[in-house]
Amino acid sequence: MKFTERLLEHVRPIWHENHRHPFVQGIGSGTLDKEKFRFYMIQDYLYLIEYAKVFAIGVLKARDLSTMGKFAKLLDSTINEEMSLHRQYAARFGISHEELETAKPSPTTLAYTHYMLHVSQNGTLAETVAAVLPCAWSYWEIGKALNTIEGASEHEFYGEWIQMYASEEFGTLAKWCIDLMDELAEGKSETELHDLEEIFLNTTRFEYMFWDMAFNEAMWPIDE
Ligand SMILES: Cc1ncc(CN)c(N)n1
Question: Could you say which residues form the signal peptide (predicted)?
Answer without folding.
Answer: none
